[in-house]
Write a structure and sequence with these properties.
By secondary structure, the protein is α/β, with parallel strands linked by helices. The protein is 43% helix and 14% strand. Bound molecules: (2S)-2-hydroxybutanedioic acid. (2S)-2-hydroxybutanedioic acid binds next to loops.
Length: 392
């Protein structure tokens, strides 16, 4: 029976981690998978998380089951950051559950949308490859539209057209901030246009907020999401703490439903809980419990926000240096300075990406995506020189 299985293509991004690890060259540069790195190339545990983990070890009396919704203190503790501190539950219209990372949250969001009658999901491309993989697995039809213009800015006309043309049964999956893989976000004005278009559309908004705090800060990075939520009757939100709390392998995320009316939430959330139960039963506790302890403690919260600010400033410095390089061979790096978060894309073909790897020990995704945080003051010159070599 099992011999009938054809080999599945490995996830290219995850395969890159292993290729990089196996390269013996001392000056190799990893611009592959999206993890933050310091200027020393480390991905340390946040000090605020370390302290929360210490407290968890001493205070946690039991590891007995919590249920498919996970740690509700964590889920509710995040809500002021996501939905705004003035009215985090939007008048009782928002509820959530904990999920294994942002992937689990996206999975619940699209599976719930499908159960509610969504048949097609519009997705700006390029997008995070797992978006398409999850939609294909459900399956749900994916309708692509162009996310970006050639000049490195967002193609707002494309998304507005899709929203205006949407029919009943359509959803639109949007990145809340720090677009993965392009780093190209809608401007605040464009978000307001998108919000107004969604308010008049049949499309259900699904917003993936996986990088809050890595662009302009926790408040500003929620601007687009909040503009949409203020305008539409209902929406679904997928949230990840993997990056902004540095908890990658602990898999910390949350799914939120924004209902037309709070009275609909028990039915909606019972479906979300049933999907969680069938997929993973209950989410892993440790990372979410650590985030909850950070959010419950004013001093730890301040420390976490400070650490997040340091990350953000370092990525801006890298972007500024890349932008200052301007034209490098056939490439123009200027637009990278006004993009956000961990990623940007370089218009390099497969041969050039392969040459960067073979000749310069530089590892990046086959799409041309680079992880900005893989660049440091120590390796930026080498990187720009290598680009000049392959794109000359
Ligand atoms: C990435 O895009 O590199 C990250 O979101 C990690 C992942 O799960 O793909």
């Amino acid at each position: 029976m099992l011999e009938r299985l054809n080999p599945a293509a490995p996830d290219a991004l995850l395969a890159l981690i292993k290729l990089y690890a196996a390269d013996p060259r001392g000056d190799k540069i990893d611009l592959g998978v999206g993890v933050y790195r310091t200027d020393e190339g480390e991905t340390p545990v946040f000090a605020a998380i370390k302290e929360a983990e210490r407290r968890l070890v001493t205070s946690q009396a039991s590891k007995s089951y919590l249920g498919p919704e996970g740690d509700m203190g964590f889920v509710e503790g995040l809500m002021p950051y996501v939905f705004g501190k003035d009215d985090p539950s939007m008048g009782g219209r928002v509820q959530g559950i904990q999920t294994p990372g942002g992937t689990g949250a996206v999975r619940i969001a699209v599976a719930l949308a499908k159960a509610a009658g969504i048949t097609r999901v519009h997705l700006g491309v390029p997008s995070w490859p797992n978006h398409a993989q999850i939609l294909a697995d459900l399956p749900l039809e994916m309708a692509p539209f162009d996310h970006a213009c050639a000049d490195g800015t967002a193609n707002a006309d494309a998304v507005l057209q899709v929203i205006r043309d949407a029919r009943a049964g359509d959803a639109v999956l949007l990145h809340g901030c720090c677009h993965n893989p392009t780093g190209i976000d809608y401007t605040p004005d464009q978000w307001h246009e998108i919000a107004a278009a969604l308010a008049a559309s049949k499309a259900l908004p699904i917003i993936d907020l996986a990088y809050q705090g890595l662009g302009f800060g926790m408040e500003k990075d929620a601007h687009g999401l909040r503009a949409v939520l203020a305008a539409v009757p209902e929406a679904l939100v997928a949230y990840s703490c993997d990056k902004n709390f540095g908890l990658y392998r602990d898999r910390v995320g949350a799914f939120y439903a924004v209902a037309q009316d709070g009275s609909q939430l028990p039915a909606i959330m019972s479906n979300a809980a049933a999907l969680a139960r069938a997929n993973w039963s209950m989410p892993p506790d440790h990372g979410a419990a650590a985030v909850r302890l950070v959010l419950e403690d004013e001093a730890l919260t301040a420390q976490w926000l400070d650490e997040l600010g340091t990350m953000r400033r370092r990525m801006r410095q890298v972007r500024d240096r890349l932008a200052a390089a301007g034209r490098v061979g056939t490439l123009d790096l200027t637009a990278l300075g006004s993009q956000n978060g961990l990623f940007s894309m370089l218009p390099l073909d497969k041969d050039r990406i392969a040459r960067l790897r073979s000749d310069h020990a530089i590892y990046m995704a086959g799409s041309g995506r680079i992880n900005i945080a893989g660049l440091t003051q120590g390796n930026l010159d080498k990187f720009i020189g290598a680009l000049a070599d392959v794109a000359g």
